[in-house]
Amino acid sequence: KKSVVVTAAHCVHNFGQGAAGWVDEVRFYPANVTNPFSAAQPYGVFQAVSWRIPTPYYNGTDTCAQAGVVCNNDIATVTLAARA
Prior knowledge:
Layout: E1 4-7, E2 27-28, E3 46-52, H1 55-59, E4 64-66, E5 70-71, E6 76-80
């Protein structure tokens, strides 16, 4: 869908930390290949309204080669709000 971004779970949650592991906010800067805080934002910025990860990553029971980073369920979906 246009409003969904797929990324790594470790981008939005600290492995195995349950409810305390979430980031405070997520923003998406499409086609920004430089600093996200610079003026180089050719398509603007999109604020996330929700993000989800698999339960094994959330509770720390995922099978991992390196805890929290190289895991079978290190995936997240991020739903974006319409651009302001």
